[in-house]
Design goal:
CATH superfamily of the largest domain: Dihydrodipicolinate Reductase, domain 2
Order of helices and strands: HHEHEHEHEHEHEHEHHHEHEEEEEHHEE
Mean pLDDT: 92
Shape: globular
Strand content: 15-25%
CATH class of the largest domain: Alpha Beta
Structural class: alpha/beta
CATH architecture of the largest domain: 2-Layer Sandwich
Number of helices: 14
Radius of gyration: 21 Å
Distance between the termini: 46 Å
Number of domains: 2
CATH topology of the largest domain: Dihydrodipicolinate Reductase, domain 2
Strand order of the largest sheet: 13-12-11-7-10-9-8-14-15
Low-confidence stretches: 1-33
Number of strands: 15
Length: 444
């Protein structure tokens, strides 16, 4: 088999699981003629702290950064010192209004609650989009991101970098080939949260630092006073701004199993949070720890499957790992003939268990990625959205699966899910968590 045919078949299989075929034709914002003669013009939203700096630098290596946007003036000035030709903004809405015809693609590396509002505004203007994980704050937003990308024929990529690793791609192919047998059970765990959560809102008053544009940080979220408990990194654990441990890591740690087993549209999810998560704490933040059971029905030629999620120190039983130790983070896919275990969040390395039965196993061929962000840039240049393996057609579905776990947490009961129609069928009140209200001026 040639490298070219291997690449073609792998891409076809990967895009097929998302049930979408990309049709050729001119993409808005980037033409074949322009691709041959110009650099991609990037606008970066969220430019330092967390993934902002690395996504910004990736954009700079793959094109020209023409605009930088951040609600933190210190972050913005630091980024501007590296890219002095870029125009500076604190409000991405103003940036879009002033520079729409000068931007080809955007990077969105902001807190979870602003992913969709920042990205969709640009996508509706025909801008290709790289957005950090989890793709969105709500399931409804993830669905809309996928639909807008398809409608506008845009090249997209979610920032779950493990998708580009050889270990991830090998493990996906092993499971798809059936080399560990039919899979009925998956276990995923993480050491998150590594930030404070599980408590109520702060009650003391703090003055907002002059370099923080607090109203712009809030964006679509409901108005509340500034407090250092929320910003910069600590926003992840608060219901208003983040998606908790699940949202932070599951798009990485679930990624291999979801891609290999088409774990989209669970039929139910049931969460068991820590017993102290009550009252004011439950109304404000995510629990200190939890476990969540996702159930999936038949999917094509795949049978029913259960996925178990653990966070905050919870772990699966050591007995499941056939002598391997349960690390801080990991995944275990249990087949009828064998098991795949990885203690790496991105699945860059893994073991096939039991080891003695796979000593002579020949690993399957897989596509060598040129790099996660490079896939996105190449997709734009070659006018082929499918070249970015974690494009929104796939990443949107992955995010929907992940965020159903948070709906189950907040509902406080087992939720039965109609994924096609994005509806909890056994608890009408839980449907309030499928979407959210947006502050005036920040609507999608």
């Amino acid at each position: 088999m040639t490298d070219q045919s291997t690449r073609r078949e792998f891409i076809q299989r990967s895009t097929a699981i998302a049930a979408g075929c990309w049709v050729g034709g001119t993409r808005e914002g980037w033409t074949q003629e322009k691709s041959a003669n110009s650099a991609i013009r990037f606008a970066c939203i969220g430019v330092d702290g967390g993934k902002g700096a690395s996504d910004r630098d990736d954009a700079g290596r793959h094109g020209d950064i023409v605009a930088l946007c951040d609600i933190n003036e210190d972050y913005l000035e630091k980024a501007a010192s590296k890219f002095p030709k870029a125009k500076k903004y604190h409000d991405y809405r103003v940036m879009y209004d002033e520079m729409a015809d000068q931007i080809d693609a955007i990077t969105v590396s902001t807190p979870d609650h602003t992913h969709a509002t920042a990205a969709i505004r640009g996508m509706k203007m025909g801008k290709h989009c790289f957005c950090q994980k989890p793709l969105t704050y709500t399931i409804a937003e993830a669905r809309l991101m996928r639909e807008v990308a398809a409608e506008k024929k845009l090249c997209t990529q979610m920032g779950n970098q493990g998708t580009a690793s050889s270990g991830h791609r090998e493990a996906v192919e092993i499971i798809r080939k059936g080399d560990i047998g039919a899979v009925k059970e998956v276990h995923i765990w993480t050491d998150r949260p590594i930030w404070a959560q599980g408590g109520g809102y702060p009650t003391d008053v703090e003055e907002c630092p002059k370099h923080i544009h607090w109203d712009l940080f809030l964006g679509p979220a409901k108005d509340r006073p500034y407090h250092s408990a929320y910003q910069p990194f600590k926003w992840r654990g608060w219901l208003d701004f983040g998606t908790g441990a699940l949202g932070d890591m599951a798009c990485h740690t679930m990624n291999m199993a979801v891609m290999a087993l088409q774990l989209f549209n669970p039929i139910s999810a049931e969460a068991t949070p820590d017993t102290e998560w009550t009252g004011a704490a439950r109304a404000a933040s995510y629990p200190k720890n939890s476990s969540i059971k996702f159930e999936f029905g038949p999917r094509g030629n795949l049978g029913p499957c259960v996925l178990y999620w653990y966070d905050g120190g919870r772990r699966p039983s050591n007995d499941l790992l056939m002598g391997e130790s349960v690390e801080k983070t990991g995944s275990l896919v249990i087949g009828e003939k064998g098991r795949i275990f990885s203690s790496n969040s991105y699945h860059s390395d893994y073991l096939i268990l039991p080891k003695e039965e796979y000593l002579e196993y020949k690993k399957p061929e897989h596509v060598i990625s040129p790099g996660h962000f490079t896939e996105f840039a190449n997709a734009i240049k070659e006018n082929k959205p499918e070249l970015a393996m974690s494009n929104f057609d796939y990443a949107g579905r992955l995010t929907e699966t992940v965020l159903l776990g948070n709906i189950a947490l907040r509902a406080g009961k087992k939720v039965e899910w109609d994924g096609v129609n994005m509806k909890v069928t056994n608890d009408s009140a839980a449907n309030q968590f499928v979407t959210r209200e947006y502050r005036h001026g920040w609507d999608l």
